[in-house]
Design a protein that fits this description.
Length: 346
């Protein structure tokens, strides 16, 4: 893992970049909770105003992409942190301090409708961005397949210690092909790729700010929606999720952004897109624990497993690839999972 620069160097750079004061004054530098990457975040008061200082090693972090997507979203009316300075060579960013509020801890049954209405409003602004000339990677077959490949490598084989037979590998390849085909049927929009309640920040003036968007791509219209509504960190009843999903479909159609896609087809896309994402997440969270020494992600595996089994089981009667996967997961993996210290069934 690449080590970020020492905080003192970052602070000296920020003071100089902002022209705030002599670096010898050394304002207090407080650590801000980070994310799954090698980025490190700090807070300091400079020129009488709180700022966020970021050390993002250029060897591993997508700093140019962050700046490009930030500008794109801001121009589309999406609330993102203001940029005050950047040193791409050293991987330093000086950003607006958006506060500490996240959408996740503020979600409640009584307020969920309003919260998700705000969040899907952000998605509508993003969907309105013309994708044809965007200099962003496509969420294509190669990328979707690579993501699904994390599941057998990191979750099944490395975390659970289960070797796969040739028949099991073929079954997973057939599932992958089905999920990728469903994703590639969908209209294209700008996809944040990690649009969920830990990356949405309620603001005092109202609305939501968006962070952690450096992995944005051009891809399926349901991807960010299912990331939001089947969040890996909070769960809502299936019928409520579908109600919110169809309300977003209606809003897209009212704005001419979707075309003639009926409710059943949209929900099918939505559900299979969520299955692709959650199978990927099982591999990604296992990798974060095993490779990057981030054990907290193990606590989130049980909810993700529930999502995977729910949707695979729901579509098993009409999707043979999902039926085979569901039966295999329940018989082959579930008994092993039940023995894990992080398992909800232990």
């Amino acid at each position: 893992m690449t080590t970020p620069s020492p905080p003192g160097e970052l602070l000296s750079w920020a003071i100089s970049a902002l022209g705030a004061a002599d670096s010898s004054q050394s304002p207090d530098l407080a650590v801000v909770a980070g994310d799954a990457s090698n980025r490190r975040y700090y807070r300091a008061t400079l020129a009488g105003k709180s700022h966020v200082l970021v050390s993002a090693p250029p060897a591993t972090e997508k700093n140019r992409e962050f700046l490009a997507v930030r500008k794109l979203l801001a121009e589309a009316g999406v609330r993102v942190p203001e940029l005050y300075a950047a040193d791409l060579e050293r991987g330093y960013l000086l950003l607006e301090d958006l506060g500490d509020r996240l959408m996740l801890p503020e979600l409640a049954v009584a307020t969920a409708d309003a919260s998700y209405q705000l969040a899907t409003g952000v998605l509508l602004r993003m969907a309105a961005i013309e994708t044809q000339d965007l200099q962003l990677p496509p969420y294509n077959e190669d990328l979707l397949t690579e993501e699904l490949g994390r599941f057998p490598t990191w979750f099944v084989q490395t975390l659970l210690g289960q070797e796969l037979s040739a028949a099991e590998q073929a079954m997973l390849e057939a599932l992958s092909a089905r999920l990728v085909a469903s994703a590639l049927e969908q209209p294209l929009v700008l996809v944040h790729r990690d649009f969920h309640s830990r990356n949405l920040m309620p603001q005092e003036e109202g609305g939501l700010a968006v962070i952690d968007f450096q992995d944005a791509v051009v891809g399926p219209v349901t991807y960010d929606l299912v990331s939001l509504l089947r969040d890996c960190y909070v769960r809502w009843p299936r019928e409520q999720v579908r109600h919110w999903a169809l309300a977003h479909r209606d809003a897209l159609q009212a704005r001419g952004m979707l075309g003639d896609v009926d409710a059943q087809r949209f929900l099918h896309w939505f559900d299979l897109m969520g299955l692709q994402r959650h199978i990927k997440v099982l591999g990604t969270f296992a990798r974060l624990y095993l490779r990057d020494a981030k054990p907290a992600y193990l606590e989130d595996l049980p909810l993700v497993i529930d999502y995977v089994l729910e949707i695979a089981g729901l579509y098993a009667p009409q999707e043979p690839e999902l039926a085979a996967f569901h039966q295999w997961f329940k018989s082959r993996l579930s008994p092993v999972i039940a023995q894990q210290p992080w398992s909800a069934t232990q």
